[in-house]
Fold:
Amino acid sequence: MNSMIPLVNQAFKYLDKVAIVDEHKAYTYAELLEVSERIAQFLLQKNNGQDLKEARVAFKAIPNFYYAAIQWGIWRAGGIAVPLGISHPIPEIEYILSDTQSKIVLTTNDYQDFLEPLNKADLLVENIEQLPTVSESIDLPEVEANRRALIIYTSGTTSRPKGVVTTHEIIKAQITTLTEAWGWTPDDYILHTLPLHHVHGIINILYSALWSGAKCEMMPKFDAKKVWEKFAGGGLSLFMAVPTVYNRLIAYWDNLDSNEQQRLSEGVKKMRLMVSGSAALPVSVLLKWKEISGHTLLERYGMTEIGMAVSNPLLGERKPGFIGRPLPGVEIILVGENNELITGPDDMGEIRVKSPSVFLEYWGKPEITRDSFVDGWFCTGDIAVRDNDGYYRILGRNSVDIIKSGGYKISALEIEEVLRKHPNIKEAAVVGIPNEKWGEMVAAAIITKPHNHFISLESLRSWASEYLAKYKLPNEVMMLDDLPRNAMGKVTKPALVKLFEADE
Ligand code: MCA
Ligand code: AMP
Structure:
């Protein structure tokens, strides 16, 4: 039986082909359809045989076959899939569950114990590796393409993350613009090493592969040695990652003897495309990677709310330091501080986007959704210039409260809110400080109570790890008598960044 869900429907074209390879085995598209149908049947049964009709179903799974099967199972039962980060502690998960009003969390053996404390009367934790056999089969509902499909949580200028909602149709637009621009075919074979609670890992890698009838090998966690061995082993055609990952791969390669370096470089040269995104790719990394691998990394630009919008070309000039030109179907304008349209080369403005790939809404936040659009254009908050050839270059962001570290978007406000709960912290201000390896690193300035109370970085990280994922923990802490402030008493974050830089 075919499906009206575009991505699921594609799979019927490739039934016997391998879809996913994980640490256990290789699974075909037919197996993905079969297991996801079983999960859908289970969800329908729990819902008295009824279509889930956009009920939110959260799930936590290691990046492997089950991750994909769960996500498709939720869709095929008519629900909205809410992926949870595997590194997120319980309070971050509880926030997402409550924000989405999820009544059920699907998981696997790996996280059953971890999630058990959440298993209560109003929230069921179900392990899909131990599903009961469904006695009677229920017809899968007809899920129209304009139904809500996915909620991805993104940090931003509000203290708590916002849920970005996309429909099946929007997801299809996000996928197809990429698969066409980057020439995906059923012969492609990609290695997946990124987290699966963000667009980069979900849309650009997993879904693009599944849409194309290609093969996606999922590695549960990035490991430079294992990735290099996969490159050297041959067969892979594609790789996509954040700049920090390329940095790590370079550092690993640099430490090898020349025979080993040559062996690994020979393998990687055979691939057809390597992509970088989610954060600015330093030109030094691009040049070094070219030297090692023969590949000029294709840098592209996107955002959770818009999918991918701008990309260097598959064929043609990839300009170092530039994110490229708008992808097909994507309209971009630059708007200056006084809301004027920027037309001249080298004048800077905020990137605003219109495209079928733009999200539907922030979950449960109609006002914030409305305020993030001006005349139908989504305002990204990223500041850029456009050169005479129409290539864009990112210069920065219009918010000091957004930090990009290791490709993750982190809200300074979210961390500050957590730090203020510490019994010995009176005030806290968090900034991102430039860092070669991570892009930016989280740094916290605190005023302690009682005055002169000492809090070490180690103890602060250990305390905060109960509330925040590892990648959000401060990497530097500075104790101050007062925070730098302007005449209005507001903390001046650029001055704080300078203080941290002077301290290094
Ligand atoms: C981890 N560590 C850090 C950070 N993260 N230190 C500083 N800053 C960080 N951000 C430290 C840990 O505390 C630990 O230290 C050590 O590094 C290893 O931690 P681990 O958790 O194992 O990290 P990792 O696995 O090595 O992570 C590095 C990584 C990861 C693979 C680059 O950050 C990653 O997967 N980033 C990708 C994020 C992503 O997909 N973003 C896309 C969103 P110790 O050993 O001392 O404890 S953006 C998006 O989707 C848009 C649409 C787009 O454009 O793509
Ligand atoms: P997120 O919302 O987590 O998906 O992160 C999106 C943000 O990542 C964008 O708004 C940009 O600030 C940043 N970003 C993505 N790709 C690039 C890139 N190639 N260069 C610079 N910044 C980027």
